[in-house]
Design a protein that fits this description.
Elements (H helix, E strand, L loop, with lengths): L1 H81 L3 E2 L5 E3 L12 E2 L2
Antiparallel strand pairs: 1-2, 2-3
Length: about 110
């Protein structure tokens, strides 16, 4: 009986060892999966950072273009004011400011 007890005890130890190896294998596999997941998150963050930088550059360009456009509109408005005219109700002629007439002061016919 003693040999049977010893054999049973040895089998129990082998079973515990196999369970420990199995648990270690599962932990190792889970760690590898986790590492792969972390690498994917890292790549996604790098892509988000890249797109954010591109968007920032586009916003800067759009802002500069808007500022330039606003300046162009202001210049056009000023020129339009400088070229404003009034119609002489008695003659049907347009009276332009001297700057627009090249300094001649002569009215031009209405179009």
């Amino acid at each position: 009986m003693r040999l049977v007890d010893l054999a049973g005890s040895t089998m129990d130890e082998i079973l515990r060892s196999v369970e420990q190896v199995t648990a270690s294998w599962e932990i190792s596999t889970a760690s590898a999966d986790q590492r792969a997941g972390i690498e994917q998150v890292h790549e996604a963050i790098a892509q988000i950072d890249s797109v954010t930088q591109q968007n920032s550059a586009l916003v800067e360009q759009a802002s500069a273009a808007a500022g330039s456009f606003a300046g162009t509109v202001a210049d056009a408005r000023k020129r339009g004011e400088d070229l404003s005219y009034r119609e002489d109700l008695n003659s049907g002629w347009l009276q332009l400011p001297p700057v627009a007439m090249g300094g001649t002061g002569q009215p031009r016919p209405a179009c």
